[in-house]
Amino acid sequence: MGFAVCFACAFPTTAHAAGRAVQFRADDGRVLTGLMTEVSQRPSAAVVLVPMLGKPKDDWQAVAQRLAEANIAALAIDLPGTAVPEEPAALMAWQADVRAAIAYLSSRPDVRPASIGLAGASLGANLAAVAAVADPRVRSLVLVSPSLDYRGVRIEAPMRQFGARPALLVASLHDPYAARTVRDLSKEAPGPREVRWSEAPAHGMRLLAAEPDLVRALVEWFQRTLGQ
User: Fold this and answer.
1) Has residue 162 been placed in a domain?
2) Residues 6+ apart with CB under 8 A from 188
3) What does the pLDDT read at residue 227?
4) Which CATH number does the domain housing residue 152 bear?
5) What are the pLDDT digits (tens) for 12-41?
6) I need a surface site. Which of 8, 12, 145, 147 has the fewest CB within 10 A?
7) How many domains does the chain have?
8) What is the C-alpha to C-alpha distance for residues 161 and 172, in angstroms, rounded to an integer?
């Protein structure tokens, strides 16, 4: 977007939560590694954090620490690749890693399996939306700079199928496709859809870094919708 920002520096925190590496398996047997930020009051709600294309799971760590301050555990994951596959079906298949992360959280004794949320940015938002549809354990969703169609990963139908479950939709007014997507997804939605706009000219995680109030809104959203 034409400028650089230190995301970790943008959100100073007094929390002592620190992510630690955890491993879990995908349905195809692959061993996946996530960054788990735990909380002291257990069992707790928990959120899977899905990054932008080309960004690592660590990109979410400042947000994970803010969630931990609110006693919400967080599991940040990597995408399976750093470049878009040639076949749209191969990109759609990346949602399997998101589903594996949901299953891993639901298996942990320190997580309330009925209080799991998903948050994603850019491509991560689309993958999160698709993965959430078929998994009733996902109680709430946050999409940051989503796209109606990200190289074949379409989310209009999945978001209708998400039904009465709540979703927070976040975009910059200066990000035309994401803004159009948020407007379309919020029209005649079958369930609660809250929209947060920003004037910051940024996309995905850069948008959260540019406007810390959006991170506060994300945390408060999960506090309300995951039963904190």
Assistant:
1) yes
2) none
3) 85
4) 3.40.50.1820
5) 333 335 689 999 999 999 999 999 999 999
6) 12
7) 1
8) 25
